[in-house]
Amino acid sequence: MPSFFIDRPIFAWVVAILITMVGTIAMLNMGIESYPNIAPPQVVVSATFPGANADTVEKNVTQVIEQQLTGIDHLLYFSSSSSASGTASITLTFETGTNPDIAQVQVQNKVSLAQPRLPSAVTQQGVVVAKNNPDFLMFVSLVSSNPEIDGNRLADIIASQVSDQVGRIPGVGSTRVIGAEYAVRIWLNPDKLQGYGLSASAVRDAVSTQNVQFAAGSLGADPAPTDQAFTATVSAEGRFSSPEEFSNIILRANSDGTAVRLGDVARVTFGPQTYGLVSTWNGQPVGGLGVQLLPGANALDVATAVRAKMDELARDFPQGVTWFAPYDTTPFVKVSINEVVHTLVEAIILVFLVMLIFLQNIRATIIPTLVIPVALLGTFIGLISLGFTINQLTLFGMVLAIGIVVDDAIVVIENVERIMTEEHLPPKEATRKAMGQITGAVVAITVVLAAVFIPSALQAGASGVIYKQFALTIAVSMGFSAFLALSFTPALCATMLKPTHNEKKNVVYRGFNTLFDKVTHVYSGHIGSAARHAPRWMIVFALVAALAGFLYTKLPTSFVPSEDQGFALAIVNLPPGATIKRTEAVMGEMRERLKNSPLNDAIVGMYQISGFSFVGQSESAGMAFIKLKDWSERKITADELIMQANGVLHGIRDAQIFVVNLPTIRGLSQFGGIDMYLQARAGQSHGELMQAMGMVLGKSKGNPALVGTRPNSLPDAPQWDLKVDRVQAESMGLSVSDVYTAVQLTLAPIYVNDFIYGGRVKRVYLQADQPYRMGPDALQHIFSPSVLANSATRTAANPYNMIPISSVVQTKWDSGSPALTRYNGYSAVEIVASEGQGYSTGQAMAALQNIVDNDLPKGFGADWTGQSYQEILAGNSATLLMVLSIVIVFLCLAALYESWSIPVAVLLVVPLGLLGTVVFSMLRGLPNDMYFKIGMITVIGLAAKNAILIVEFAVEQQQQGHSLFQSVVTASRLRLRPILMTSMAFILGVFPLAISTGAGANSRHAIGTGVIGGMMFATFLGLLLIPVFYVVVRRALGDKLDEPSNKIPQTHAQLPNEPGQQSFDSDPRRGS
User: Which of 10, 214, 469, 541 is close enough to 236 for a disulfide, judged by CB 3.0 to 4.6 Å?
Assistant: First the structure.
């Protein structure tokens, strides 16, 4: 193949141009996101049991459905929540890569088996099975400069005009309105009802029967007489549309012509469907809408579509109403991607400078510089074919690939220049001869590097997605690199290179050459000594390998680094039973404290939600998204701000406030940090589970590895228990149903039916007015009519025989959970925490697990979820993955060189790279996370490549009759310059990752630091010890393992320098 392109350089250019064009088109058509779809898919089962408390829902709904959730393919775990509002929610999480549509169908089939055992009230409401994404892509909010438009009106605009429109955008999974749309609220006066002898049930029935859309038919419709000349529809009264119309509903018509109307016993107004939920931006009321992605949807595309739709809808908003996005995850995506692109450009520039210094020929340097963009753009062709997107992982892979891509081109160029200088051949002939010598070496190196990366693409789970993005990106780029090295590079060498051995070098090059000559001389002397005393150096190696293994086991573990995403999240919890007004007051004090602190210089604003947080919906809960200034406009990182903000907000009365980071990978967890379920595996009661949770929280306070340990659930809240005296009630003409219906219609907001407002169907709710439901004395105002005609309670003062509910019920105060949680079939409580300063998530998880194992009574256990679960999976498979990569490389080398001993000599360099990776990570305080593991795999391949360059040439020397000692010394001396050149090109190409700042910098540091350390140790220690490895292995194993195939095929033994030829350090091309 090389000869074809050497003879047809224009053809080579055409191929390169086509690769560039197609790659550019592919790049422009690829989606852009921060991370690929790493979060495992989820399916949620939702059901409602009206009027039931949490315990009733759990026993009659949740557990019934859970018992059927067996035999579902690829199910990882499931959790459930049974709330005091009568709702049950079961979230099933599946393995990454599972088809969510198939998972949804399987869950639907299992739920269908449970439906016959569910209460009829539940099946009447319906059991919903839907795909789920727990993470918010963004919040859009409306703000008004018009004082006549308050927060409730803004929420109504969001619910009526925005929510459905945004929800129909492709890629939007669901929307959540922060607030509620308007409804007609009928506020009953129980005292007036009792005076008129009316019950709340009678009001409900009157509204239901009179607020109705009637269909009256038509006149003259067929069948009709033959002389009928016209038809007309009959228009009748429809649903009401104003509070005034509702106020005129007749509750009772008297024989004297008078009537009792709804307005006589109630106040009818417009108001929100639900109360207890307030959102503000820097204290100003706003209407909010949370937008969640469909699983697999592209975040940037969806966010762009949402913004375009909001601009379109804004034209119809009332005057003074505008929209903005107080929380948006996509700016971080854009900035972090741009930062990696900048790093990519910087890497190319640094690689160019390294090649220029070593090659000392601008023409020779331009050739690999041209190859880099062609290979990288060609990589996009492979990526789009694999269904990948442009994300941080694929771009990281490209940064690592730059140093690898230039290796093949450098090997070709260096060999062509050597032949031109030594044999005085013209460029075309020199290129032809050079390619005949090194084609096998290029193929060998490509196969070995591919063998390192491909096995990692087979990893399952969320970690497998990360490995696959890196591995296949580098593998595809290497494929294009090898192809170009055998086609485009030789064509360029044949046409661009010129003899330069008579040219005088400038002072920089002469100085570099003088220094390099001294290094080469010292190095050659060391190799001779080391080869003669190989056993002692193997003892040194054994100590180095042992140290590497020891330090590796001491490295703290993690999944992925936390990132500065431009936001911090504050979780606010007040004492159980606190009202929304108290929560709003705490939110106000929180704003003032941060405003008056130095942190205000780094904060743009706060989007605060009172009455809802990720722990649940309650008037005593809230959360705030703290929006930070652009990364370039502040001096502190998000982690630093979070630590200081927790101190600033500590001590606010009646509140616990935890400021945490957002998860790096969206959808894996609600917060950064660790996520655990404490399970009652022996059937312990809810009270015993709460005691165990308290012990965990208490023990964790003194542990430096844990910060902000807290339950991710609402605490037990006050409950007012009612118990009907059934005998007393029946004797007074009341049924148990009558009693509870009267209480429910008075104290709870009851949906009656619908009305028309603004062209949209909205709801009608019935409830007692504020003064009649503020405390236990509310029962004194609730009455229900007796069915007994001659009841003793019928008096002149009570002519309608209205029975006070307080006379037939007993009450007491108690406490109960607003929501009961289960995890994998056990009663559980979710506990979340952050790692302490200087600790990793792996260390924090170990500390929490130790508390559960050693400090809790028997029968309690812990199970991990979300990102913590994925971290454990990744850690369990990491060692196996490393071993598999090494084994695959060994087998490939054995097959290529028809030798069992040569691969051993090559792979002994791996511990040196491991030591460098561990040491550099430790010095920078970085843990053993996914990026560390990816760096290790990269170092394995590149370290093996360096060893191949020496070992293969040494084998060639032996085949030509030189002794083992002479062969290894000559090979090491002649390969010093290309090894240093390619290694330095790679190290400096990765260097911008290690020193980068801004969005996504922690991930870039994690991968850059380990790779640089590993390559430095593998290169510099490897140059010293690889010759020793070869001598020892060939003496100890060569004759035994390589028989009868102890001769290396010549096709794989050809490298740029041949025995007896000049070394690079005395090359006449370098001038004087």
Answer: 214
Q: Measured on CA atoms in the order 883, 986, 945, 20, is the torsion positive or negative?
A: positive
d(CA 402, CA 990): 9
Per-residue confidence (pLDDT) for residue 823, from 0 to 100: 92
pLDDT at 1058: 39
pTM over 0.90: no
Cα–Cα distance for residue pair 405/485, rounded to 1 Å: 9
Residue (of 933, 910, 1048) closest to 558 by Cα position: 933
Nearest alpha-carbon partner for 34 in 1005, 1009, 994, 999: 999
Q: What is the mean pLDDT of residues 269-282?
A: 87
Q: According to the model, what pLDDT value does residue 957 have? A: 78
Give per-residue burial for 841-852: e unless 16+ CB within 10 Å, then b. Answer: bbbbbebbeebb
Calpha distance 965→967 (Å, rounded): 5
Q: DSSP string covering 940-957, please?
A: HHHHHHHHHHHHHHHHHH
What the chain holds in terms of domains, given with CATH numbers, is 2-33+333-559+872-1070 (1.20.1640.10), 566-661 (3.30.70.1430), 672-716+817-864 (3.30.70.1440)
Are 527 and 973 within 8 A, CB to CB? yes
Which segment of 310-319, 485-494, 522-531, 638-647 scores lowest on mean pLDDT?
522-531
616-628 and 567-573 as β-strands: parallel, antiparallel, unpaired?
antiparallel
Q: Which residue has the tokens 């005393």?
A: 533
Q: In this structure, what is the dihedral angle of CA atoms 400, 402, 408, 414, given to the nearest 10 degrees?
A: -120
Residue 224 binned pLDDT confidence (cut-offs 50, 70, 90): confident
Please give the structure tokens belonging to residue 759. 């062209």
SS3 841: helix
